[in-house]
């Protein structure tokens, strides 16, 4: 038996269904490369589930998944995923392997960043395609995430921009870094962004989570010190959305 389980954005967000499934497992793994808890850590989670957690790196899941999945042929194995297991990052290949090998599997959803973006007052039905900003590699900085924003804005839609992170190196992209990328991409693509409105989300699920809305200059000036973070670039704002951003996101 293999279970793919979402564990939310902090240990307190573990659902009863997830807790019972984990406690019924013979062995519990967690992947440590797609996100992190906004508050709390794996030690706290181990206390809650009363089981040891075995850490998996990216290569363990993407290149050597057969190693731990083969255990599910004779034992009950759980893989814990921060947030929701099939949102923003894909673990579909694990389920495909289970199907191929006739391993019974179950997916248990968890709370993710997408459950929080409505907290600023934007209409969930008015979001376009999500994109991800990545850290430059060897001087190469892909502009495709910026192109997604421009295409969404052309349709009047909001864009939720997720950020790259390297938890093993304690490196997490921040809202101000992301806005810096937008500025560079705007110059390269010759796009005027002076009137762009955004919403910064910091450490959602943390007791001191941050939600700040406004022009990019204004958002950039805030102290972004809780992680993980993400950024919404607004498309055409309806009157009720504009009012909500002022009341809930502090937009001037």
From TrEMBL:
Its EC number is 2.1.1.98. Pathway: Protein modification; peptidyl-diphthamide biosynthesis. SUPFAM superfamilies: Tetrapyrrole methylase (SSF53790). It is an enzyme of class 2 (transferase). One of its GO terms (molecular function) is diphthine synthase activity. InterPro entries: 4pyrrol_Mease, 4pyrrol_Methylase_sf, 4pyrrole_Mease_sub1, 4pyrrole_Mease_sub2, Dphthn_synthase. Keywords: Methyltransferase, S-adenosyl-L-methionine, Transferase. GO terms for biological process: methylation; protein histidyl modification to diphthamide. Residues 4-152 form the Tetrapyrrole methylase domain. S-adenosyl-L-methionine binds at residues 9, 87, 112-113, 204, 229. Belongs to the diphthine synthase family. NCBIfam families: dph5. This is Diphthine synthase. It comes from Candidatus Iainarchaeum sp.
